[in-house]
Design a protein that fits this description.
With about 600 residues, this protein is of the alpha+beta class. Helix content is about 35%, strand content about 20%.
């Protein structure tokens, strides 16, 4: 695609979790996956913002009428359950945010006001998220040009979703309140590749901060995309940097197709909204959805869309059509399972004669389409209202909305783009007057990688892996504590060996603690184990079999002499037999791989 000609504008919102304590209480930032200690059930309603208006996105959520269940733990407190006011803001998290401001040369506000952002999808027990705008007007450079940083904020993370159905959402409180640094860029990004490069650059800067969380799910990217004639679309849930170019490309394609459809439908005027009950036409239907609905005293309702025949089935993204967009709105707004539309019928058990009867009852002309919804009457009505509204938007172009990223790079509708009406001041947290002059810059990740290569002798790849690792602080600690052990060996032990344990031996290396690694290097320094058997020691630690008394120190020369002796005692024996004897005699004193390599060398030298 010629993105310049299309007028592509793209911006990023990146959220990075911080380690330590939560933003407005002293609870740990530990993510839990065990059984909860208590449950809380609650419903939320939208409140007017500072300007006296209810936000459009909040209003939509309230209409869904869902109940929310929250799972709590002994590591969560009354602040998370919204039963106690927030405490003073986490000073370490604030320092991290101000460090980032300094890195990108952003203008820090002399006074920071914590605000409440109305969110009533249940992801915050209070019905709002606390957020504090710290700075603006920063800058980073990319190969495609400068990208302006419009805002840097410090805010609390939302609850972790456990399950979701039409009536209830279940959340966990363990993630709620974890400090997040949010960075927003201007729409200066003009290609999908520059979008990926920008996200990677910002991610590197964030990971230069000393207290960032690391690992899957600790950093999230939202992408804003528009083209000439289109509108801003916010795509949420992009966790993989490799997915970003595809997300941008497919959103551009979606907007292109929707603009083409708008132009083709420009002479269409939708008739006034009118729902028709067509349940009587389906009393003998073979369609399972319809049969089940009617058996539960539900209804089959329909609307006519003049001039839409052939357009609802048009593909706008791989595997997604205009009808999919209509269905998304119906599902989100009304909680129905989906819709039927005339471009895809007869199908799903709906016969050709039933389609003809519906067209006749609705007064459809050949160029007209229709939509069917089978559900309880109220939900079916809400669903058709949502479809009609989306059809009106199709005549105008592209509705501004928030969309959810899928693994294949396509997106689905989530909610309207929220506005300023959802913001109002947080009165329980005092104003913050930061002194950014006292903030010291951390060592940037790029600088750390260069130092590991120059001063510690690590290869470029190993230096990068070590610097980005969750155990980078442990690596630095061990390098300083054990100067006689090569830094490369320490890095390999912390980073590569656990991967080998998982891939080759199918054990879970996540069971290894930092203290396990500290013990290994202490035993190495004390001469209680040999570096050649570190893999075996770590496997024993993972499987719960480790006992230091089982290990005796044998230097490489002593192992070599023992293997020569075994070969001499069993002249002519095949390798497999010699290997078995060697493993038995040297059990726990060297790794199998090391014994195999040494034995092959001895045999190659003619000792047999």
């Amino acid at each position: 695609m010629d993105y310049k000609d299309l007028g592509l504008k793209c911006g990023l919102e990146i959220h990075q979790q911080l380690e330590g304590k939560k933003l407005f209480c002293n609870c740990p930032t530990t993510i839990r996956d065990d059984a909860p200690d208590f449950l809380i059930q609650r419903k939320l309603r939208a409140a007017a913002g500072e300007e006296g208006e209810v936000d459009i996105a909040a209003k939509q959520e309230q209409l869904r009428g869902k109940a929310f269940t929250y799972q709590g733990y002994d590591s969560t407190c009354l602040v998370e359950t919204d039963c106690e006011p927030p405490h003073q803001i986490n000073s370490e998290a604030l320092t991290a945010a101000l460090q980032l401001c300094k890195i990108v040369d952003a203008e820090v506000f002399p006074v920071i006001q914590v605000m409440r952002k109305t969110i009533i999808d249940g992801s915050n027990t209070s019905g709002f998220q606390r957020t504090a705008l710290a700075a603006r007007r920063g800058m980073i450079t990319t190969t495609g040009g400068a990208v302006r940083i419009t805002n840097i904020s410090l805010e609390e993370d939302s609850c972790k979703i456990i399950s979701d159905n039409a009536e209830e959402k279940v959340y966990s409180l363990d993630r709620l309140g974890i400090p997040l640094i949010e960075i927003g860029t201007a729409p200066d990004i003009t290609t999908p590749e520059q979008c990926q490069e920008t996200a990677k650059k910002i991610g590197m800067l964030l990971r230069s901060l000393p207290n960032v969380k690391r690992g899957l799910g600790t950093i999230r990217q939202d992408v804003n995309v528009s083209i000439k004639g289109g509108t801003r679309i916010e795509i949420k849930g992009a966790q993989d940097l490799r997915q970003l170019p595809l997300l941008v490309e497919l959103e551009v394609k979606r907007q292109q197709e929707l603009l083409k459809i708008r132009d083709e439908l420009k002479k269409i005027t939708l008739s006034p909204f009118r729902i028709t009950d067509v349940s009587s036409l389906f009393v003998s239907s073979a369609a399972n959805v319809i049969k089940n609905t009617l058996s539960k005293k539900g209804k089959v309702l329909a609307i006519r869309l003049p001039g839409f025949a052939g357009f609802i089935g048009k593909e706008i993204q791989p595997g997604r059509r205009v009808g999919t967009e209509f269905s998304d709105w119906a599902k989100i707004r009304a909680g129905v399972g989906g819709i039927f539309h005339s471009d895809e019928l007869p199908r799903y058990g709906i016969s050709e004669s039933e389609v003809a009867k519906v067209k006749e009852k609705l007064g459809c002309k050949p160029e007209d389409a229709f939509i069917l919804v089978a559900d309880v009457e109220k939900k079916a009505q809400l669903a058709l209202e949502a479809v009609y509204e989306r059809a009106q938007q199709a005549l105008k172009g592209i509705p501004a909305e928030v969309r959810k990223a899928a693994a294949d790079g396509t997106t689905s509708y989530l909610r309207p783009i929220p506005g300023a009406a959802r913001m109002y001041p947080e009165t329980d947290v005092p104003l913050i007057r930061p002194d950014s002059k006292k903030i010291e810059l951390p060592e940037l990740l790029e600088e750390k990688i260069a130092r590991y290569q120059k001063d510690l002798g690590l290869s470029k790849d190993l230096a990068e892996f070590a610097a980005k690792s969750e155990l980078v602080h442990l690596f630095e600690e061990l390098v300083e504590q054990y100067p006689k052990i090569k830094p490369a060996f320490i890095a390999e032990t912390l980073i590569s060996v656990p991967l080998d344990i998982k891939r080759q031996f199918h054990h879970d290396p996540d069971r290894l603690t930092e203290d396990d690694f500290r013990d290994v290097f202490r035993y190495l320094a004390q001469g209680k184990i040999h570096k050649d058997i570190v893999l075996d020691v770590l496997i024993d630690m993972v499987t719960g079999k480790f006992d230091i008394t089982r290990y005796a120190t044998l230097g490489t020369e002593e192992i070599h002499k023992e293997l020569v002796k075994i070969v001499a005692e069993h002249k002519g024996a095949p390798f497999s037999a010699l290997m078995g004897l060697a493993m038995k005699r040297l059990a726990g004193k060297a790794s199998g791989q090391f014994i195999s390599e040494q034995l092959q060398r001895i045999l190659a030298q003619g000792h047999n």
